[in-house]
């Protein structure tokens, strides 16, 4: 692939990319040079400090992937990227720890007045009894923006004996519970600002946060407090900050790693103050962090290239079911009512891939047969979750692989034929080892299924909500083999393999879940499904804070369904699956109807509450058959022509001795 690296990243990562791809480096290049460099590039790798304006990206018609080697996106128009359908990935996790540690370092430096102590010593002053210093222990730590980085700062502060208090943009009980687990009390913005001895800023820069810390806010801070800004320049109004740092101001000191004006030769007026510590945006610049970010950039690009994105291949025949079979396409015939629309339809695999990478929260609804699949599509959903639980339930067996994979395959084939939207199959463990997975992928592609989700449990599986914490998990190496086998077996580059992580349900913890996530992503998974069975989204949101959007994440909020979906969207989740609700709703209705009919010994009490038979005919597309009869039957009226016995309709039995040869009957 053709890659443009516009910001410095780990040199070993660049060398590895150069061995595998066509790489151009244009570090800190001016806009006009970027416009020239981006013309033929497939991928752009960037950090903060470079302005990737829309007019620059407009010059890159081949652009398919953008990798933010870090967290913030204030230098990118995300709406434009989504509109162009450019895949976008950021890498927030490695930098979060480095920035959090730097916040603590700055608090220690301010509290112990290390800058002044160092300056005086270099002048020959032994100011042992002149330098004032303060402990962090016992102080209130105010965190404006208790997200991924802010939460880590709170954890570190709590470990030093501080009392962390944080605020967030969207307050919910789940967020409060998650922060409480880390020792951070959730409060309002003013309740964070006013009592803080150390006020740390960790919010992104956008229209709502620009000049968030202005003169009015600074007038309310606790006298003698310290301010630390590791967010973005522009969040803190530096002119107002300057005033409060002068003698008689409310602040004892401040430390800023980010500035309103950044770059070579740009000196802040704050530099003249002795109680200010200034650094050149180095919060994430540790050797360890940059090495990890570089490795993650490599993994992302390798995975993207491995999904067939290096070129623009034609869609193979295996996906022609999205548009009708290959045979029907070659005939040029006009399929009644359906053919014209299907001929122009985007392949189902491409539809599913677009959903995963749309940049906003999308939804799939469960279906378990052809009829329910059609109902899901008619309701307006963009995709279908072919649920292992509900398919097995519809067959009257348990969700323990009692239905064979060929029986499941037959069901999803009916579902695929009945709908024009993509289906993501809940493929359990892949129904065996890597070889079973390879065969499954080929059969799914032949039937027009857009993707499969496989889980890292052992075959035969048991539903995750049945003693999930007691269920063993597959070894990471074994499951990685399944993912690689699946990706190597697919013919259509847009077919999606989703790796489902069961570590949280199995009680193996967050670190194990993240370890598996990185392994599965590196193996080539197109997305991850992270599963939790607690009634709050704490585990899921905690995972997202540390994972970021390295690749799309799918969730199944069956247990934490009360959570506003806006929280999922804000966390960067790609798809939420309503995994069993059509089945549960139909079971309730069938139980009610059956009981009423049995008790009344009549259908009279229920007749007005159920759909008429003609609605069943409509869902079966009986009108399409009628239209086909008008085209294909000889008399065009939907009935058989008059036969030799003078009857309309099927011919009566004719004695064999009087039967005409087939060739004569065709005359």
Describe this structure in words.
This protein has 667 residues and is of the alpha/beta class. It folds into five domains: 89 residues, 3-Layer(aba) Sandwich (Rossmann fold); 181 residues, Rossmann fold; 234 residues, Phosphoenolpyruvate-binding domains (TIM Barrel), CATH 3.20.20.60; 27 residues, no CATH class; 33 residues, no CATH class. Helix content is 41%, strand content 13%. The protein has an eight-stranded parallel β-barrel, surrounded by nine helices. Strands 8-7-6-9-10-11-12 form a seven-stranded parallel sheet. It has a five-stranded parallel sheet with strand order 2-1-3-4-5, covered by helices on one side. Strand 15, helix 19 and strand 16 form a beta-alpha-beta unit. The longest helix is centred in the middle third of the chain and has 23 residues. The two termini are 62 Å apart. The relative contact order is 0.08. The C terminus is likely disordered.
Feature tags:
667 residues, Rossmann fold, TIM Barrel, 5 domains, 8-stranded parallel β-barrel, elongated
Give the DSSP E fraction (strand runs of 2 or more residues). 5-15%
What is the CATH class of the largest domain? Alpha Beta
Contiguous runs where pLDDT drops below 50 for at least 5 residues: 311-343, 638-667
Task: Find the CATH superfamily of the largest domain.
Answer: Phosphoenolpyruvate-binding domains
Describe the main β-sheet briefly: 8 strands, parallel, barrel
Q: Tell me the radius of gyration.
A: 31 Å
Kindly identify the CATH topology of the largest domain: TIM Barrel
Distance between the termini: 62 Å
- DSSP helix count? 28
Number of domains: 5
**What portion of residues is helical?**
40-55%
Mean pLDDT: 86
- Give the strand tally: 20
Strand order of the largest sheet: 13-14-15-16-17-18-19-20
Structural class by sheet pairing and helices: alpha/beta
Shape from CA axes?
elongated
CATH architecture of the largest domain: Alpha-Beta Barrel
